[in-house]
Amino acid sequence: xxxxxxxxxxxxxxxxxxxxxxxxxxxxxxxxxxxGCAVTSGLMLAARRLLPSPAGGTFPADRRRRFNQVNGxx
Length: 74
Prior knowledge:
The structure is a single chain. This protein is mainly alpha-helical. The model has no long low-confidence stretch (mean pLDDT 85). The protein contains 3 helices and no strands.
């Protein structure tokens, strides 16, 4: 589902968006949180439907695990 990194970057973008909404209170913050979640969901669904699959297929398990460890540290 994370074709071309769109899903990965959308989740990071959502995190930054949620951090940015901390400047607001009440209904405005709620609306912005809902909008951020909707945009993230829309990007991930669009990526799943519209983008081609990665050319090389999925990474081997050991490389995927290392990738996830590095991203966890970041």
